């Protein structure tokens, strides 16, 4: 029995690989995609999501466009990392087949959670603006979901945008603060996703005779040499794909529960994920954080899936 999943995303090179993984695994049934600002403005991330659904030949999946701006801070995007328009690769221009459905993504999230009451996994792999708005529409959202999985945050490791903050949390700290406070998330943050890279020799072995094969390699290598050096990475961290892999294979991630908050008060703490390890506040645990991952299983699952896709459609 496959798990119904709605993916809220800001494609994004690693988002593209996360979507490919989700779409190609029988363990998951992708019932919807919603888009949010983040790696690029929402007009671009929506175009990219539409192009990806057409590229992957999955135009039957409903796509809903979401928030243009963060709740309280200025929009910040990452085309310098993900490429012009927010993504690399040889994507088709979207057609009317993937026109976004009517209404806002926040409403789409609530309606889908109600439709699949108790069964839906919501995977948020971009800034959390849509999820926070969905919570404001329907405060019972956590009870309607089976699980909320978030790629974001940096609990016990440095941030990738500030010394304390990871990009998705930094992009909309107020949204992250509300979602962490109220929605009992499973947080898959930099503590594990920094190591979500794939073996360089496997990447080099991928056939590149087709737009699909070439695009996958571009997404797998989206960090520049300077960025690899800055973060001390051997190859590019595919952050979002690890969050999805943890849903595909429930034994992949080891998590710990804490009372958690997210900083919103100053430039220093904007987007910082704070875990009360020693229970020094009176807060009850309100979510869990992935601290360990079986990277061998992740890489096996990822490479086996991509090898199959490229063999079937990459020629
Ligand atoms: O910090 C990594 C996260 O920020 C990923 O979701 C990536 O796509 C960017 O959105
Ligand atoms: Ca993302």
Itemize the secondary structure elements and their pairings.
Elements (H helix, E strand, L loop, with lengths): L2 E7 L3 H12 L3 E8 L6 H14 L7 E3 L13 H4 L22 H11 L4 E5 L4 H9 L3 H4 E7 L15 H5 L1 H10 L3 E3 L1 H4 L6 H6 L5 H10 L4 H7 L7 H10 L4 E6 L1 E3 L10 E3 L11 E7 L1 H19 L2
Parallel strand pairs: 1-2, 1-4, 2-3, 4-5, 5-6, 6-10
Antiparallel strand pairs: 7-10, 8-9
Bound molecules: alpha-D-ribofuranose and calcium ion (CA).
What do you see in this structure?
The protein contains 14 helices and ten strands. The chain is of the alpha/beta class and 315 residues long. Strands 3-2-1-4-5-6-10-7 form an eight-stranded mixed beta sheet, sandwiched between helices. A two-stranded antiparallel sheet has the order 8-9. Helix 1 packs parallel to helix 13 (239-248). The longest helix is centred in the C-terminal third of the chain and has 19 residues, at 295-313. The chain is globular. Bound molecules: alpha-D-ribofuranose and calcium ion. The site of alpha-D-ribofuranose has 15 residues, from helix 1, helix 7 and helix 13.
């Amino acid at each position: 029995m496959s798990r119904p999943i709605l993916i809220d995303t800001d494609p994004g090179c690693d988002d593209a690989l996360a979507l490919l993984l989700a779409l190609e695994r029988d363990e998951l049934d992708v019932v919807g995609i919603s888009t949010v600002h983040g790696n690029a403005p929402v007009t671009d991330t929506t175009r990219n999501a539409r192009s990806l659904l057409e590229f992957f030949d999955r135009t039957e999946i409903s796509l809903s466009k979401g928030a243009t701006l963060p709740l309280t801070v200025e929009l910040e995007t990452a085309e310098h990392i993900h490429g012009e328009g927010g993504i690399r690769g040889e994507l088709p221009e979207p057609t009317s087949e993937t026109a976004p459905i009517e209404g806002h993504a926040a409403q789409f999230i609530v309606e889908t959670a109600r439709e699949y009451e108790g069964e839906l996994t919501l995977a948020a792999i971009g800034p959390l603006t849509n999820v926070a708005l969905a919570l404001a529409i329907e405060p019972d959202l956590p009870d309607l979901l089976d699980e909320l999985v978030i790629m974001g945050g940096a609990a016990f490791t440095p941030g990738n945008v500030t010394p304390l903050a990871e990009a998705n949390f930094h992009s909309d700290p107020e949204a992250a603060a509300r979602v962490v406070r109220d929605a009992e998330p499973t947080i898959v943050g930099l503590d594990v996703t920094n190591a979500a890279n794939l073996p360089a020799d496997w990447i080099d072995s991928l056939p590149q005779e087709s737009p699909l094969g070439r695009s996958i390699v571009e997404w797998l290598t989206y960090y520049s040499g300077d960025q690899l050096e800055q973060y001390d990475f051997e190859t590019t961290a595919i952050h979002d794909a690890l969050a999805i892999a943890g849903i595909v294979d429930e034994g992949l991630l080891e998590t710990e529960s804490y009372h958690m908050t997210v900083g919103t008060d100053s430039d220093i703490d904007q987007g910082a994920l704070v875990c009360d390890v020693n229970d020094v506040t009176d807060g009850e645990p309100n979510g869990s954080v992935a601290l360990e991952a079986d990277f061998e299983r992740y890489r096996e699952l990822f490479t086996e899936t991509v090898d199959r896709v490229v063999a079937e459609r990459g020629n």
